[in-house]
Design a protein that fits this description.
Elements: H1 5-13, E1 19-29, E2 38-47, H2 52-64, E3 73-82, E4 87-90, E5 93-98, H3 102-115, H4 120-131, E6 141-144, E7 164-166, H5 169-178, H6 184-197, E8 202-208, E9 217-220, E10 224-229, E11 240-245, H7 251-260, E12 263-266
Parallel strand pairs: 4-12, 5-10, 6-11, 7-12
Antiparallel strand pairs: 1-2, 1-3, 8-9, 8-11, 9-10
Bound molecules: pimeloyl-AMP and magnesium ion.
């Protein structure tokens, strides 16, 4: 933890079990030379004060090893959060399905989304919207689950879920292992999908990664995180997320929950 001494002191000054720290990191390329900024990666954590320095250091290490490219802008924001404000919400159950082709995975994604309450038109629209992106967004798109119409006005940026983590890391990792999965990407995606699923008027989610070598994606409902592979071809560095919501949704409340409500995702007790 060399060179992190002063920073550690500032955080430790706030060391108290009444607070956690939200750490939000985002990296981009072409952010400083007037060209179009390219989103590389982002990360959202919620940890006790004594973990802040090591989490930040790990995130910096991950950015420098990232397969989407070299960052020329890294934004790290740390906010102190009162524990009393944090909601504890349940983790989705995990399923994994493998297919021979991307077309078969997309076909299953559509069937699954319909099973979760999305209309056939809206499910197709979700797949097409991600497939037709010309660059990956920082966040996701919000679609009406009946009409397939995009209802957020976040344009190329999209809406980002933030202020989330698992409640107990070892318990979360063994919960994942019980379902035969592991690793940072799955961990982050299950936490994100579990938070999204807790939103009022949420119906389902569709996602695949923007990392060129990572072809597994998922569909999620209020209960299930269903991994589907392959959702894209190798070397493709465009991915995205679509959140399907009821027509009755209050968009401002939804965005406020996604962006600002701190949550810790809990696994079922044994
Ligand atoms: N909030 C909303 N949308 C986001 C967020 C966020 N915090 N983070 C990423 N996105 C959007 C954005 O458009 C990205 O381009 C896209 O999702 C993909 O992000 O094996 O790695 O972080 O079970 O590349 C899913 C499968 C991996 C994991 C998803 O997404 C598994 C993944 P990535
Ligand atoms: Mg990525």
């Amino acid at each position: 933890m060399a060179n992190m001494g002063v920073f550690q002191l500032v955080i430790e000054h706030n060391l108290s079990s009444h607070y956690l720290f939200s750490i939000r990191m985002r990296a981009a390329a072409n952010a400083n030379d007037g060209g179009g900024e390219q989103h590389l990666s982002g990360c959202e954590r919620l940890v006790p004060g004594n973990q802040v320095a090591s989490v930040v250091q790990n995130l910096l290490r991950r950015i420098s090893a990232h397969t989407r490219g070299k960052a020329d802008m890294i934004n790290i924001r740390i906010d102190k959060i009162k524990r009393a404000k944090i909601w504890q919400i349940p983790a989705l159950k995990i399923e994994s399905l493998e297919f021979a082709t991307m077309e078969q995975s997309h076909g299953n994604a559509i069937i699954s989304l319909m099973e979760f309450g999305v209309s056939e038109i809206a499910a197709h629209k979700g797949i097409e919207l991600i497939k037709n992106l010309s660059a990956s967004m920082r966040g996701g798109m919000v679609l009406n689950a009946v009409t397939g119409e995009r209802i957020d006005n976040f344009g190329d940026r999209g809406v980002r879920l933030s202020h989330m983590d698992c409640k107990n890391e070892p318990a979360f990792l063994s919960f994942m292992a019980e379902y035969g999965v592991g690793g940072e990407k799955v961990r982050e995606a299950v936490i994100l999908a579990s938070k999204a699923a807790f939103a009022k008027d949420y119906v389902a989610e569709l996602c695949w990664s923007d990392d060129p070598h990572y072809v597994t994606g998922y569909v999620a409902s209020k209960e299930i995180y269903r991994r589907l592979s392959p959702m894209k071809s190798k070397e493709d560095n465009i991915g995205g997320r679509v959140f399907f919501v009821k027509s009755s949704v209050n968009l401002n409340d939804l965005i406020d929950f996604f962006e600002n409500q701190p949550v810790l995702v809990e696994v079922p007790r044994k």
